Amino acid sequence: MALFDAEDRFHKTRHESLAPNPTLGSHLDAMVPNWMREEVSTGTSIMAVEFNGGVVIGADSRTTTGAYIANRVTDKLTRITDNIYCCRSGSAADTQAIADIVAYHLNFYEMETGEPAGVRVGANIFREMCYNYRDSLSAGIICAGWDRRAGGQVFTIPLGGMLVRQPVAIGGSGSSYVYGYVDSNYKPGMNEEQTIQFVTNTLSLAISRDGSSGGVIRIGIITKDGIKRKVITGDDIPKFFEG
């Protein structure tokens, strides 16, 4: 029963947070700026790519509330287990809650089985959560990681709860600007350094065109040894022609 308590609490909290507050008068509502009424969104450009030996995940760091930039240095690469991470896009509250619940489930799974959870197991729990609550969630997830059965794996779970494994996945509002670049520059069998550069260039292009993406570029390299993280800031972000 404990496994379902977290989902029940999430579902109740979600609806309670959306319910009107009867204690607030209309005069107070009139004083609240329009941008404060918007849900906090990660906006986002996120990406994950398989390579020989693991996966590289990456994301920008801008969080918005309407047109207002609420946070310039958000971490959208969220730990689920030591070898499984997710990239979050959509509502910040929804994606954080889902990631917490999946981590909770996998913690129980690992205690019961006595072995690390596989990436596909984590991805399927994401899929179940996103599908079951598809009418009330705004969440696009990329689940990526490494396990001893299948090595590096990337799974994408878009709005609605579909689950697809892909060698390269992009998501968020900035992804629509870089599909052509990804299609023309992705090459199967890239090594770690080539994959890091590919992810960095893609996110740089997305940030330069998408108003909801920005800040720094966060990169994670997940292999059998765990995760290595790096942050690309300021002048280190690749520059491209902006006509």
UniProtKB/TrEMBL annotation:
Q: What is this protein called?
A: Proteasome subunit beta
* The entry's keywords: Cytoplasm, Hydrolase, Nucleus, Protease, Proteasome, Threonine protease, Zymogen
Swiss-Prot/TrEMBL catalytic activity: Cleavage of peptide bonds with very broad specificity
Subunit structure of this entry? Answer: The 26S proteasome consists of a 20S proteasome core and two 19S regulatory subunits. The 20S proteasome core is composed of 28 subunits that are arranged in four stacked rings, resulting in a barrel-shaped structure. The two end rings are each formed by seven alpha subunits, and the two central rings are each formed by seven beta subunits. The catalytic chamber with the active sites is on the inside of the barrel.
Predominantly, its location class is: cytoplasm
Q: Which protein family is named in the record?
A: Belongs to the peptidase T1B family.
Active site residues according to the UniProt entry = 44
Parts forming coiled coils: none
Q: Do you know which InterPro entries this protein is assigned to?
A: Ntn_hydrolases_N (IPR029055), Pept_T1A_subB (IPR000243), Proteasome_bsu_CS (IPR016050), Proteasome_sua/b (IPR001353), Proteasome_suB-type (IPR023333)
Task: Give the UniProt subcellular location, in the record's own words.
Answer: Cytoplasm; Nucleus
Its Gene Ontology cellular component terms are: cytoplasm; nucleus; proteasome core complex, beta-subunit complex
The UniProt record lists the keyword Hydrolase: yes
Function summary: Component of the proteasome, a multicatalytic proteinase complex which is characterized by its ability to cleave peptides with Arg, Phe, Tyr, Leu, and Glu adjacent to the leaving group at neutral or slightly basic pH. The proteasome has an ATP-dependent proteolytic activity.
> A single Gene Ontology molecular function, please?
threonine-type endopeptidase activity
Question: Pfam families this protein is in?
Answer: Proteasome (PF00227)
User: What are the GO BP annotations of this UniProt entry?
Assistant: proteolysis involved in protein catabolic process
